[in-house]
């Protein structure tokens, strides 16, 4: 079968003679040319298998020759889907998407979402800390995450940096689309999860210091409302227990994942008595570890000769500081990519409900990268 010249048909449909210029082609135009119903055209272009291969090929050929482009808004009204995934990057403060840890996670999400045929909507929300007098994530600083998702009608949600004291944390179960949390324990069943093996990572870091001969080992942890803080503290405790070293809560300093809190930790540790003061410190993030090293050097304390330091994350700057930082490497890109794949798999199954995740989540491996910030203690 040979159908009419598509360009002449479009000209006649738009009621103009000669070159029409820019013509908006609809599925009705394609349907008239091919001789099928608009419904058949729509189903063929959207991959439904109830359209014959020969007809499907004709429809796609005409659509290509006419320069047909799908109207995403109109399609969304029919399918109730927008082909968008929402990524919330919470609590990044002034660093925003430039945060060295968040950057690679975002790349992993973005690349995977794009390859799956979806668009990514980024939400950068830097909620205040509890000390500021406003509740983190509250309406005064972030609005409703659930409300934003419904407003933009995203098909799936990924969140990183969510605090467990966020007043909206418990409301995530109200989402009617697949939701995956990165490095945060889900508040209820049906929410997906992906994170690093933080317990093993911190345990390995502490064991490295023990193997060098350190017995007074401090822990510079993150704030208490981060799941990773509890997990990394647990790994630290396990390593001490396995080595027969008593756990001393005075050697644990609670920071907030900022470089400034690393400086505060340095002053705290160095103010301890000589028989308690640590000869080595495990930090729950590279940013805090670098802040700690810089503060120690400013106090005239040599790293690693006087104090060894281990970080966590292996951000790009970890290998460029002086001395290069021994750290626990996380697969940051893979964290984002895995979270995105979890959402896309649920959508491919037609499962828009957050109750669709059949597994508790994924733990990605970490590995210790030994550099120049650790050494045996002075005799």
Produce the secondary structure layout.
Layout: H1 6-14, H2 27-34, H3 38-45, H4 53-66, H5 72-79, E1 84-90, H6 100-115, E2 119-125, H7 145-152, E3 156-160, E4 179-182, E5 192-196, H8 198-211, E6 217-221, H9 227-242, E7 252-254, H10 259-270, E8 280-283, H11 286-298, E9 308-313, E10 326-329, H12 332-348, E11 362-364, E12 367-369
Helix pairs in contact: 2-3, 2-4, 6-12, 8-9, 10-11
Task: Explain how this protein is built.
38% of the residues lie in helices and 15% in strands. It is an alpha/beta fold. It has a six-stranded parallel sheet with strand order 2-1-3-4-5-11, covered by helices on one side. α2 packs across α4 and α8 packs parallel to α9 (227-242). The protein is elongated and about 90 Å long. Residues 11-21 and 128-143 have low confidence and may be disordered.
- What's the number of helices? 12
SS-derived structural category: alpha/beta
Spatial order of the strands forming the largest sheet: 2-1-3-4-5-11
Q: Fraction of residues in helices?
A: 25-40%
**SSE arrangement, N to C:** HHHHHEHEHEEEHEHEHEHEEHEE
- For the report, how would you describe the main beta sheet? 6 strands, parallel
Distance linking N and C termini:
91 Å
* Poorly predicted sequence stretches spanning 5 or more consecutive residues: 11-21, 128-143
């Amino acid at each position: 079968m040979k159908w009419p010249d598509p360009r002449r048909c479009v000209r006649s449909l738009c009621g103009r003679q000669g070159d029409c210029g820019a013509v908006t082609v609809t599925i009705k135009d394609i349907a008239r040319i091919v001789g099928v119903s608009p419904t058949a055209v729509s189903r063929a272009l959207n991959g439904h298998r109830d359209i014959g291969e020969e007809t499907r090929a004709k429809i796609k050929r005409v659509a290509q020759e006419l320069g047909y482009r799908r109207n995403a808004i109109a399609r969304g009204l029919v399918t109730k889907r927008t082909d968008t995934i929402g990524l919330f990057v919470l609590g990044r403060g002034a660093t925003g998407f430039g945060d060295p840890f968040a950057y690679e996670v975002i790349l992993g999400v973005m690349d995977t979402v794009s390859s799956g045929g979806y668009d990514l909507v980024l939400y950068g929300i830097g909620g205040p800390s509890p000390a500021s007098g406003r509740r983190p994530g509250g309406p005064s600083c972030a609005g409703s995450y659930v409300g934003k998702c419904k407003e933009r009608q995203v098909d799936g949600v990924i969140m990183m940096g969510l605090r467990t004291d966020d007043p909206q944390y418990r409301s995530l179960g109200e989402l009617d689309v697949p939701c995956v949390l990165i490095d945060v324990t889900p508040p209820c069943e049906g929410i997906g999860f992906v994170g690093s093996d933080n317990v093993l990572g911190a345990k390995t870091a502490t064991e490295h210091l023990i193997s060098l001969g350190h017995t007074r080992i401090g822990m510079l942890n993150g704030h208490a409302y981060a799941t990773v803080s509890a997990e990394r503290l647990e790994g630290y405790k396990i390593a001490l227990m396995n080595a027969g070293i008593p756990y001393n809560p005075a050697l644990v300093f609670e920071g907030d994942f900022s470089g400034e809190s690393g400086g505060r930790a340095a002053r705290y540790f160095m103010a301890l008595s000589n028989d308690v003061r640590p000869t080595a410190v495990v930090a729950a993030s590279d940013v805090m570890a670098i802040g700690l090293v810089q503060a120690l050097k400013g106090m005239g304390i040599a790293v690693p000769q006087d104090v060894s330091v281990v970080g966590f994350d292996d951000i790009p700057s970890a290998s460029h500081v002086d001395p290069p930082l021994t750290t626990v490497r996380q697969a940051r890109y893979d964290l984002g990519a895995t979270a995105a794949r979890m959402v896309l798999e649920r959508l491919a199954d037609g499962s828009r409900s957050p109750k669709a995740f059949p597994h508790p989540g994924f733990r990605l491996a970490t590995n210790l990268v030994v550099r120049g910030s650790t050494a045996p203690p002075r005799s």
